[in-house]
């Protein structure tokens, strides 16, 4: 049976980042990707921060810069803000995955496409037998020291190793629209039950005259596609002209909420597989790549010691939570508050945000990777905002501590 030191399952940004780091560290790394082409089909809007580009080590995938945002409430009141400098970047997401895979391959990682992880067999003597299915349904088994599940939201690796899945997976639908008559460096966000209950709808100019339009919603029995169609109809009315037929349709899911454990004996999860996703936006490229770097550092050490036990790999869980745990915790808390707001509350929230001082605060503190900082700052500055929200939130905002209060959320409104 073939023996492999590190098997990375999935060639998205998290998998290719961990593969690159471990290959640089001199380890034998094999990446399996179920699709024939790394990076395709694209399942992402591709809006990232400078931090993500820094981790990727390339700007060649940038297609447009974003300086501002307009957030629409359910009755279409809006709040707009714009920074003098770029705050986010619209990237060629397929191109990013390819660039990251090239980097890992150049460092020595081996890529096998059209190969799917299908489950695990026995674990013995510090090795796990893994079942793979290759082109034309060829089945094989390999013996692996460390399996890294970077296989996205439906992670087969997490299921095979009995690691718990995130509590919520939000259905998402996105497409590319050929015409984008709006401001080319401003993204639009649509809140409210009619547009996108549970998260939001988005309109992101793509830098070549079109836009990426999508929704992520609560699983409430109505399909994400129906909400998408509704948003598109509204946008065509708003711009007063046809926007062209949507292409590159994608249906996917966004994991929300951290999972209790992202490692086990001989296994680690990274990226969406580990629900390392920002709970207020669903963005996971930066967080997944950064956590993949942390995973690689811990794996490098564990491989060197010849100890891939859950006890040793627990350092990974501790380290990534030290960096993101508090932000995710606060963001989840704010998300729960947000979910309790009905459309009237959301309209009031937008109205309360309409003021030049608050717009200036958003510009000064806005950070797509750490959105709770600006949220807290806004709540501190505007008592009318706090009055709209539960009492416990007010206590949190005025306290010196940045820990979130305990709240009994009960049922949703
Ligand atoms: C509609 C939508 C829009 C989004 N927009 C943004 C955005 O603008 N900005 C942002 O930061 N994030 C965004 N995200 C989230 C972002 O796409 C993910 O967080 C990110 O792709 C996670 O990277 P990953 O490497 O963990 O997983 P993925 O990118 O999902 O990669 C997983 C890879 O594993 C492969 N795979 C799966 N199962 C197997 C298997 N059994 N065997 C072999 N291979 C397998 C898949 O084919 C895939 O290539 C969006 C998500 C959605 C759904």
Notable characteristics:
413 residues, 7-stranded mixed β-sheet, disordered C terminus, binds flavin-adenine dinucleotide
Give a structural overview.
This protein is of the alpha/beta class. It has helices spanning 13-24, 50-56, 93-106, 156-160, 224-239, 285-305, 310-340, 343-353, 356-365, 372-381, 383-387, 391-398, and strands spanning 2-9, 29-33, 47-48, 62-66, 68-72, 78-82, 88-91, 110-113, 116-124, 127-133, 139-149, 168-177, 186-190, 200-205, 211-216, 247-256, 263-264, 267-269. It has three domains: 2-44 and 93-166 and 259-324, FAD/NAD(P)-binding domain; 168-255, D-Amino Acid Oxidase, Chain A, domain 2; 329-398, no CATH class. 36% of the residues lie in helices and 26% in strands. Strand 1 (2-9), helix 1 (13-24) and strand 2 (29-33) form a beta-alpha-beta unit. The longest helix has 31 residues, at 310-340. The termini are far apart. The structure holds flavin-adenine dinucleotide (FAD). Flavin-adenine dinucleotide is lined by residues 9-15, 32-35, 43-48, 116-117, 150-152, 156, 172, 174, 214, 252, 254, 271-273, 277, 282-286, 288.
């Amino acid at each position: 049976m073939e023996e492999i030191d590190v098997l990375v399952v999935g060639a998205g940004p998290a998998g290719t980042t961990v593969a690159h780091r471990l290959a640089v560290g001199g380890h034998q790394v094999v990446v399996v990707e179920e699709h024939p082409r790394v990076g395709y089909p694209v399942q992402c809007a591709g809006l990232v921060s400078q931090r993500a580009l820094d981790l990727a080590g390339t700007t060649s995938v940038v297609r447009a810069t974003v300086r501002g945002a307009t957030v629409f409430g359910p009755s279409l009141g809006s709040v707009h803000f714009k920074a003098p400098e770029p705050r986010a970047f619209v990237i060629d997401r397929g191109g990013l995955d390819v660039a990251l895979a090239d980097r890992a391959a150049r460092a020595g990682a081996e890529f096998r496409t059209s190969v799917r992880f299908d489950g695990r067999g026995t674990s013995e003597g510090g090795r796990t037998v893994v079942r793979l299915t290759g082109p034309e349904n060829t089945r094989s088994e390999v013996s692996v020291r460390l399996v890294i599940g970077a296989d996205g939201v439906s992670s087969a690796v997490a299921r095979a190793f009995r690691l718990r899945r995130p509590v919520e997976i939000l259905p998402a639908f996105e497409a590319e629209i050929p015409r984008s008559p709006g401001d080319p460096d401003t993204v639009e966000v649509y809140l409210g039950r009619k547009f996108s209950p549970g998260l939001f709808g988005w309109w992101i100019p793509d830098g070549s005259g079109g836009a990426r339009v999508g929704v992520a919603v609560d699983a409430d029995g109505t399909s994400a596609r129906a909400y998408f169609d509704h948003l598109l109809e509204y946008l065509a009315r708003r711009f007063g002209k046809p926007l062209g037929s949507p292409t590159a349709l994608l249906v996917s899911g966004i994991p929300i909420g951290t999972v209790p454990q992202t490692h086990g004996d001989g296994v680690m999860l990274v990226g969406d597989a580990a629900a390392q996703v920002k709970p207020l936006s669903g963005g996971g490229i930066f967080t997944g790549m950064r956590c993949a770097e942390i995973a690689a550092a811990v794996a490098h050490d564990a491989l060197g010691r010849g100890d891939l036990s859950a006890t040793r790999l627990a350092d990974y869980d501790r380290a990534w939570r030290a960096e993101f745990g508090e932000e995710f915790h606060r963001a989840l808390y704010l998300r729960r508050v947000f979910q309790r707001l009905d459309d009237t509350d959301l309209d009031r929230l937008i109205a309360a945000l309409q003021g030049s001082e608050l717009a200036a605060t958003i510009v000064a503190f806005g950070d797509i990777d750490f959105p709770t900082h600006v949220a807290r700052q806004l709540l501190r500055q505007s008592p009318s905002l706090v009055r709209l929200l539960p009492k416990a939130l007010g206590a949190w905002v005025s306290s010196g501590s940045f820990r979130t209060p305990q709240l009994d959320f009960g049922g949703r409104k």
